[in-house]
Amino acid sequence: MSFSQVSGEQKTGVDIGRIGLYAFLVIAALYFVLPLAIMVSTSLKPMEEITSGSIFKLPSAPTFYAWQKAWSSACTGQNCTGIRVGFWNSVRILLPSLFTSVLLGAIVGFALAQWRVRGAGLLMGMLLLGAFIPMQVILYPLVKIFAFIGLYNTLPGIWVVHTIYGLPIMALIFRNFFAGLPEELIKAARIDGAGFFRIFFQIMLPMSRNVLIVALVLQGTGIWSDYLLGLIIGGAENQPMTVQLNNIVNSQFGEVEYNVNMAATLLTALPPLILYFASGRYFVSGITAGAVKG
Amino acid sequence: MTIPARVGSILRFEWLGATPTVRLILAPVMIAVFIAYYATILWTLAISFTSSSLLPQYDFVGVAQYTRLFGFLRWKVAFTNMFVFGIAFIFLTLIIGTILAIAIDSRVHAESAFRTVMLYPLSLSFIVVGLVWQWILDPGLGLQAAVRDLGFDSFTFDWIARRDRVVYTLVIAAIWHSSGLIMAIMLAGLRGIDREIWRAAKVEGIPTRRIYISIVLPMLRPMILTCVTLLAVAVVKNYELVVAMTRGGPGNSSDMPSRFVVENLFERSNIGLGSAAAVVMLVSILAALAPYLYLELRKRA
Fold it and tell me: Would you identify the CATH topology of the domain B49-300?
């Protein structure tokens, strides 16, 4: 709702206020775009050009040398296997935990939406509060518990962690969606003798395409961005891309290859960016659904 | 439908709702959530009252770890940083996000392009955000070098290398990441305002700026509270950004409680001390949530 919309006036000619508005928006847009644009441009330069020239200059002869090196031979300490190791670790972490956390979130959300007695409110409150708790208060005992049951430093361990700690927001999104559906739908199915899981898989899930996409995008970017859980729980063999990236950049010896570091950073940023640009409004409704209700 | 029939159907629905299947699903979830979130917190709390260092040791020493904690200069710096960073970040992000929302709401062309550009940093990991800004603000490589290259030889912007300013560079990066979120929430609020209110205010001849400040923004108070709460929680949780951007440096001048905890728990084998610091983080989160929870509960009562 805007003022010009309300007053219905569309001034003819040049309006100073409008020019100021667009100038402001363009400057704001530059603030958001420039850092990433500079990264892309710098990653395409050879090192001599970076040390001799300004970051605002475009590469004179763009080269993918830095991207190739970042992908296949960038070093973490003595280990020069490239960031692809972390990429594949992240994929191995992401796919199963994304599947289980969205599915569990949907089932729990559906159960919570149906169960309208006092206990459900309590469970919901406990879950919601969980979304705000900093992992630092949980981590040490969690490591102890995981070591005891044999999940510490394992891939399944990190799947379980992402599933449990993603549950609050996933269950909330699905509960709100299912609670908004007409009750008659479920009642009719019940009268026909359908059980919980039949109703869930045959009636509810097919209706939930949009909310499923929202949940997948939100949880997908969340898991990909994780650093702390991967660092502490996953173990050295399963370090996600974020952890490896930080190791490559922040524990370097000798001359720093900024172009390689930037390419490695962009490679890490790429999957969530693609997801974001491919899913636009779903991403936005995901973060605001989580935000406004949370 | 008569009222008794309706009550009957609701009752039956509730009874049906809590079918054994639903209970069977929710019971293990409840147990898992209780263990994963609440038992672990109690455990951390318990360790914070012991003298544990390398391994947990269950001897009660009262608040000794907390006294020790607040005696550490490093912790004092980290704890103060949380407030300095938090106040600057919340205040500026809220203002910038709101102004962006108002600008976008002024019926601009290419609205969705502007929105897309403002929101993309939210999809990035804080590790990526931290590294990007580490380079942009690097005096020898980034902005300062570039402006000097243009001929302004004395231009200086080296905050990231200065102990007394480095916290504000974290603020710059965090604003870049989060102001899109505030824009999105406030924009949703602005679009939810009744057109009649605008029309009435316009008829009265009130200037647009005053309508926003005196009428519209006060109406969005619940949204503003949500924004402040979310940002405050993000301040306490802020970890990856510091790890990637400054590693707590120079020295320990940009350390944060979150980083202090992880280091003491997993690198320095100060489990008791780290747990005490973690509990302080939890208390900070609860303090940040308190106004929101208070209003929510009062609304229900």
Answer: MetI-like fold (1.10.3720)
